[in-house]
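I am still getting used to backbone structure tokens and would like to learn alongside you. Please make up or recall a protein chain and show it to me in full. Would you write everything just below, so we can both look at the same thing?
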Amino acid sequence: DAVPIAIASGALRHEILEILEGAGIADLFSTIVSSGDTPESKPSPAPYRLAYERLVEATGPIDPRRCVAIEDSAWGIQSAIGAGLRCVGVTNSYAADQLTGAELIVGGLHNLSLSALDQLCAGGGRRP
């Protein structure tokens, strides 16, 4: 079974699509929330809430405790947490100490595995 994947980004839709199509991965994403799709942008939870709602519409019920946002900024982490999602911080743009609130921090996507995501999601509720 395919894992439902969404994008919640502050970038413009055509910019996101250009990158995804260039990488040959556009068809992997069930939904894209881009700049202007919500009245407020990150750090508001609105972009992640809309992405979650669209995933549920497209695929059926999804336990929010098993939804993980992958973020590289404090604003994105605040947005994901506000939407009730788990969050992994990636140190692409900011150092680990600036990614407060993320439940797991990795030095790059190459350091993130499905087993690490499963372990994160198996933890139950959000950590304090």
Helices lie at 13-23, 46-59, 74-82, 114-121. The radius of gyration is 14 Å. The longest helix spans residues 46-59. The CA atoms of residues 3 and 83 lie 20 Å apart.
